[in-house]
User: Fold this.
Amino acid sequence: MTTRHAYIDTELGGMLLVAHDDALTGAYFEGQKYPPAADAIGDVVSIEEDRLLAQAATEMRAYLAGERDSFDVPIAPQGDEFSQRVWQILLRIPYGETVTYGAIADELGSKGLSQRVGQSVGHNPLSVIVPCHRVLGADGSLTGYAGGLDRKRALLALEEPDASEAGRLF
Assistant:
């Protein structure tokens, strides 16, 4: 196999899915900042004819419809070592929870790394799957999101616990 891509429609707009061999390497919303270069996404393929991209599309649509809270599709985001460490931390943020850029920087060893953390979060190549939308500013504000703040709001709202369930102890 090689690098290839397909486009899907989602509840939050069009999305480009990119795969290389047996892993998803990109999930980008239409109009997202920092899209991949045209020569880095390979040939366009049909979702129906590519098992991996079909799985990614099915899981993404189910997630955005509130029918699942995690992904099983194999992923292989490409980036420098620091970004890889940040993205691994993002993958550990539980569904429905948020963290700050500063908390991630602290985990990496220094509050002074917050800006660098922000850059890595912003360049996350696997929107939603690597949940960069769960990262907030120090004051809890919705700071930048490469897919747009409206999408970030929608994703966070999707993950809010149902009010009738949130107050239950069991």
